[in-house]
Design a protein that fits this description.
- By secondary structure, the protein is an alpha+beta fold.
- The protein is built from 2 helices and 3 strands, in the order H-H-E-E-E.
- Strand 2 and strand 3 form a beta hairpin.
- The longest helix has 9 residues.
Length: 78
């Protein structure tokens, strides 16, 4: 996949399992996380503990009551 992208940005959309696989392979430079003010009870964790690294919050955008948080991976440019 990295070779096919030839240096271009690649977006992936998916759930926690897919995100964790890419994070563990160190293939993620930024995370864009959408937050909607809806209480749904229990569910799947967004990221598993083994995928955690100290990401830096780089930007917050608000669209009505919806938020998009942009995090940058440690050691990567914002």
């Amino acid at each position: 996949m990295v070779e096919a992208a030839r240096g271009k940005n690649v977006w992936i959309l998916g759930g926690a399992e897919l995100a964790t696989q890419f994070l563990q392979a160190d293939l993620v430079d930024e995370l864009h996380i959408g937050v909607a003010p809806v209480l749904v009870g229990s569910g799947t964790r967004l990221l598993h503990a083994e995928a955690y690294t100290p990401w830096a919050l780089a930007e917050i955008n608000q669209y009505g009551s919806f938020l998009v948080l942009r995090y940058v991976a440690p050691g990567r440019d914002s």
